[in-house]
Every structure is written in C-alpha cells, then in structure tokens.
Design a protein that fits this description.
Blueprint: H1 3-9, H2 23-27, E1 33-39, H3 44-59, E2 64-70, H4 78-89, E3 95-99, E4 105-107, H5 113-116, E5 119-122, E6 127-129, E7 136-137, E8 140-141, H6 148-153, E9 155-157, H7 158-163, H8 179-186, E10 190-191, E11 194-195, E12 199-203, E13 209-213, E14 216-219, H9 223-231, H10 234-254, H11 259-277, H12 282-299, H13 306-321, H14 335-361, E15 375-379, E16 385-390, E17 393-399, E18 410-417, E19 420-425, H15 433-439
Parallel strand pairs: 1-2, 1-14, 2-3, 3-5, 4-6, 17-19
Antiparallel strand pairs: 6-9, 7-8, 10-11, 12-13, 15-16, 15-18, 16-17, 18-19
Helix pairs in contact: 1-8, 3-4, 9-11, 10-11, 10-14, 12-13, 13-14
Length: 440
C-alpha cells in the first residue's frame, strides 16, 4: 500500500523515535489536505466549483488540494475549460489530480487538467483520453509530450499512461488504488517550492514503523448545486422532460386536482434546465414535442390508434437525436436509460392513459350495472376485441362466446369485466350448450 511513497520519498522518510510520540499524534500536527470530488459531465457549476476550491484551499491553511476526477467529458465551451486549466496552473498551492477509484474515466477536455496539475495519478482500471484538440494556457499549448496524438483520439490505461510519461510522480506498478495512497504519493514531493509533508512516521513499542496520513477534508457540491448538476446530464434531462410532459398531458385529460400538474411542471422545469446546459439538436427536440401532440390525439378518445404509433416513433427518433456529441464524446443516453424511457412511454399511452380516461369519463353513472342489457353499436370490427358505442360513450369490448361483430353492427351488453364490456349481436349470437340442454 505504501510502495509508491517509499519509492518517491526514499531517504526523506524520518522516523519519530523520540519522546514516544505516535504517528497519529504527529499527523495531527501536519497541515491538512483538501479533497474535492469532481464527477459527471463538467458543466458551468462544476467548473465554478473547481476554481472556488482552489481559492478556498489557498486561504484555509491546506498544504495541497486533490481533485478526485471521474468524468466522461465537458458540456462547457473550450474557452470556459481554458479558464479552469488556467486556474489550476496559477494555483499558489500544489494541485494534484487522481483519476479514481478503479474504473473511473477522464475523457474529453477535462482530461487536459492532468497536463497542468502538479501531481497526477490513476487507479488501476482507470482510463484517460479523447481529449480532442489541445487547449492553450497562458499562450502555451497544453501537452502530454509524445502521448498527445494517442490521447486526442484514443485513451490510455494506467500502465500505458505511465509508460508514455503522461502521469507525474507516479512510479509504482500498482498505481494509486485508493485515496490514502495518493497522500502517501504526495509525501516528500517538492512542488511549487513547497515540500509536502502528508505522512507521519513513528516507531511503536515493538520497533515497527507505523504511518499515519495527515487530516483530509472532503468537499462536495452543495444540495442545490448538486441537484442542478445532476439534471444537466442526458439521461436525467430526457427522463425529467418525459415525465413532465406526460404528467401535464395526464392532468389535462383527466381533470384532476392539480397534484400531477404540479409534479409535472417541476419535472419539466428541471428537465429544461438540464437541456439548457447541454448541447441540443433543435430537430430532435421538435420530434420529442411532436410525439406528445400525437399522443394527445388518441388520449382524448380513450383508445390507442394510429396516432399513438406515430407518437411512439416520433418519441424514439427524438430521444436518439436530441443530444449532440461534444468534442467526440457521445452525449446520447445509454441503452438502459433509453429503454426505460421508451418502454414507460409505450405502456403509459397504449394502456395506462386510455384506460384512465375511459374510467373517468366513459361511465355516465357511479355504477356500471345499468349497462347490462343496453343496446349499442360496434365502432369498427370487434373480433374478438374492439370498441363499442353505448349510451354515447366509447368502451373497450370483447364478444361474448366469440361471436364477431362487424362495423356498425348492433350489439347488447351481456356482462361487465372491470372496464371491459362483454357484448353479443342482437341476432345470430352463438348459443351456450348448457342453455340448450336446460331448454330441452
């Protein structure tokens, strides 16, 4: 676990043998190190938090600041990312970047943060790359040396990054698997004319060396900034907009008490805020909005028809095309997010909302028993299921004893199963053999 620090610090290790002081006691006297989590797409909120974190650490007595990086790219422009890189480069205290934990990614423009940081390291299984064209900081182009070409279009794992000399002060074959090892890696380094002292060593009663890292102060986004950062991701934005439009449509056709409309409005506002922070396609958004217009046509009649199919196709096209890629990084939501949204929309507008509308408006009285024996007409073929018109209201129906009905055939309601009517033609209905036996 401490091999990296031993390789770097080497002779600089000092064992506290006097006065019986423990490593924990000595580590409490060391200046703290601030750790700032940077995850998700880099938007304006995260960019601001990085700059503020550097200023905060310069003023609160920290000897260094570590950014724990795990991001798939940035949704801010190149100029804004240049400002972030400039802030890191101009920091008055050492800035370290750890791409971790295992499986973390540093893709897109944020990967260039490693080129201007003082100390960089990666966890095993982490990858960096897809940087796109390199930015310029203080008049000089950001560079990873000979690895620029590989990182612009591809990505590197820990071993390849170390071999290409992309990482700074990372010599251990195992990488930096956990944050504690990052503190060990910083110990003894001379950065910005400052010698970092992040680990205390002491001998215990048995003469064995014990090590204790300095105090670590963790910082994350606040509740509201974290909420705004969360919605500024393609999966969240798509889901929130979908829920918002669906609930508003539901409230409009069911004439409820307003709860669904309130929740839908909140979701739609948050979704629009997320869309505003992302790079969007106007054509994709138009397809998404057109989908709900098409859904509304069939929801008002309480029966899914061709417009429901048109809406579903339009929604799928919109979901796939509304997010634009940024600097070669795919912004489209993953297959799991897309599948959940598409399946949920299909179930809502094929089964859920039509049934809700029929249940709320198609029954003229509180009970349905009065429909038994009522005569109506078929709206289209009913074979074995379809739609009938009874007392001026359309109902989902199925034929009794599998006797089909043609369009405009007269029928009689003989039974009720939930909100489905069992019907038979006025003439020519099939006879139950039990009835024939009883009559004979």
């Amino acid at each position: 676990m401490c091999g990296l620090a031993l390789v770097i610090a080497g002779p600089a290790l000092s064992l506290m043998t006097g006065h019986g002081a423990s490593a924990a006691d000595n580590s409490a006297k060391l200046a703290p190190v601030d750790v700032v989590e940077v995850s998700g797409l880099i938007d304006s909120i995260v960019a601001d938090s990085i700059e503020k974190a550097i200023v905060r650490s310069q003023n609160n007595g920290a000897q260094a600041v570590i950014f724990q990086l795990n991001t798939q790219g940035a949704v801010v422009g190149r100029d804004r990312m240049t400002e972030v890189l400039t802030a890191i480069s101009a920091s008055k205290i050492p800035v370290a970047i750890w791409v971790g934990p295992s499986g973390a990614r540093a893709y897109g423009l944020p990967a260039q943060m490693l080129a201007v940081a003082d100390v960089t390291a990666m966890a095993p299984g982490a990858r960096i790359g897809r940087t796109g064209a390199m930015l310029s900081v203080n008049g000089s182009q950001v560079t990873f040396g000979t690895a620029d070409e590989k990182l612009q279009a591809g990505s590197l794992g820990f071993l390849d990054a170390r071999e290409q000399k992309v990482l700074k002060f990372s010599t251990d074959d195992r990488g930096v698997p956990v944050l504690r090892n990052m503190l060990y890696a910083l110990d003894g380094l001379n950065v910005r004319s400052v010698t970092l002292d992040t680990v205390s060593d002491a001998l215990d009663a048995k003469g064995q060396v014990t090590r204790e890292a300095t105090t670590v102060r963790f910082f994350k986004l606040g509740l509201m900034p974290r909420l705004l950062h969360t919605v500024a991701s393609p999966p969240s934005a798509l889901l929130l907009v979908t829920i918002g439009l669906a609930l508003l449509l539901f409230e409009f056709f069911t004439a409820g008490i307003g709860i669904a409309a309130f929740v839908g409005a909140v979701c739609l506002i948050l979704g629009c805020m997320g869309i505003g922070a992302l790079s969007m396609s106007g054509v994709g958004i138009a397809f998404l909005l057109a989908a709900f217009v098409a859904f509304a046509v069939d929801v008002q009649v309480g029966v899914p028809r061709v417009w429901t199919g048109v809406g579903l196709v339009s929604y799928i096209i919109g979901a796939f095309t509304m997010f634009r890629d940024v600097d070669g990084i795919t912004m489209r939501p993953g297959w799991l997010s897309l599948s959940v949204c598409i399946i949920s929309v299909a179930l809502s507008f094929i089964v859920g909302m039509p049934s809700m509308v029929r249940t709320r408006f198609a029954t003229p009285t509180i009970g349905r028993e009065n429909l038994l024996g009522t005569v109506g007409v078929a709206v289209g073929a009913v074979n074995p299921e379809g739609t009938v018109l009874v007392d001026g209201a359309k109902w989902h129906a199925r034929t009794n004893r599998a006797t089909p009905l043609a369009d405009n055939d007269q029928m009689r309601v003989v039974a009720i199963d939930g909100i489905t009517l069992e019907v038979e033609p006025l003439e020519g209905a099939a006879k139950d053999y039990r009835e024939a036996r009883s009559k004979s």
